[in-house]
């Protein structure tokens, strides 16, 4: 009887141990864990393109005369204000030409005044002779001579006026040539290249200096053909730079011609005037909002990152907890992140991964006892 009681006790003890081990391997959630269901939410649909910054105003000034460079006021990396004299050429020859034409113009004006006075005198004499001829006090020869003198005076005035206009045109041309001895900055900007040295002889058409304006910049992107219509109706894009800054784009210009090789359209987005620390050649991302889309998202705080593996703690229908690997997508607004694979809509996830890990560890410790 005593031996049978011992056997019964041993059987009950072993059965209890197996029952404890079995139940402890199933980790169940309790009311202290904060959970959330995986859901699909509506977000603005964005299209992002690689963009390159370029200057709206970028030009290379060239020489229009043949002359020696005698003054160089700016060099590479110098800031040039609009209207400043960038460089000067020797202008003695051009100054002399202008002075010569101005003196000739003064002489032509004096001759013209004399001719006009003689024209008035001849006109008065012609009227007087005609009156005397009508009264038969003068012969026909006197009338013919008065008319001939008037015609000659008129011709002289016309010739001198034509000569005066030609001289004025020559003077204007000479002054224009003289103005070419000074290279004026067409806009404010920065010098990027210089192609001539002080003392060199420039020739017509020779490149002198290249500059860009940093006040007016734009972002250049290539838009695929299948997004052409959506981008045309999109709102103002946002430019994101590598340093984390975002810049709101303004005017959008679309070149209505697709490239033959890529079948993409070139698009220009003007940036605000005077934006700081942005330079031509910089790289960025240009974002366009083309509509709305449904995205499967979860809070970022629920995500566990282990090396290159991302996962979340999931609560099944039977309240068991498990760690599941997921594949993530884009960062969305309001602290949400897109889930591409690993979770279905409606599944319950634990918002506090540390609390879930402690819960699992605690249950694992119990199961090892």
SSE layout and pairings?
Layout: H1 2-24, E1 35-37, E2 39-55, E3 58-62, E4 67-72, E5 79-80, E6 85-89, H2 92-134, H3 140-179, E7 182-184, E8 189-194, E9 201-202, E10 207-212, E11 217-224, H4 228-232, E12 238-241, E13 246-248, E14 252-258, E15 264-270, E16 283-299, E17 304-306, E18 309-315, E19 321-331, E20 336-341, E21 348-350, H5 353-368
Helix pairs in contact: 1-5, 2-3
Describe it for me?
By secondary structure, the chain is α+β, with helices and mostly antiparallel strands. It has three domains: 26-43 and 294-368, conserved putative lor/sdh protein from methanococcus maripaludis s2 fold (Beta Barrel); 48-57 and 214-292, Elongation Factor Tu (Ef-tu), domain 3 (Beta Barrel), CATH 2.40.30.170; 91-180. It is 34% helix and 36% strand. It is built from five helices and 21 strands. Strands 1, 2, 11, 12, 13, 14, 15, 16, 17, 18, 19, 20 and 21 form a 13-stranded antiparallel β-sheet that branches. The protein is elongated and about 145 Å long. The chain starts with a helix and ends with a helix. The relative contact order is 0.19.
Q: How many runs of DSSP E, i.e. beta strands?
A: 21
CATH topology of the largest domain, which one? conserved putative lor/sdh protein from methanococcus maripaludis s2 fold
The CATH architecture assignment of the largest domain turns out to be: Beta Barrel
Distance between the termini: 33 Å
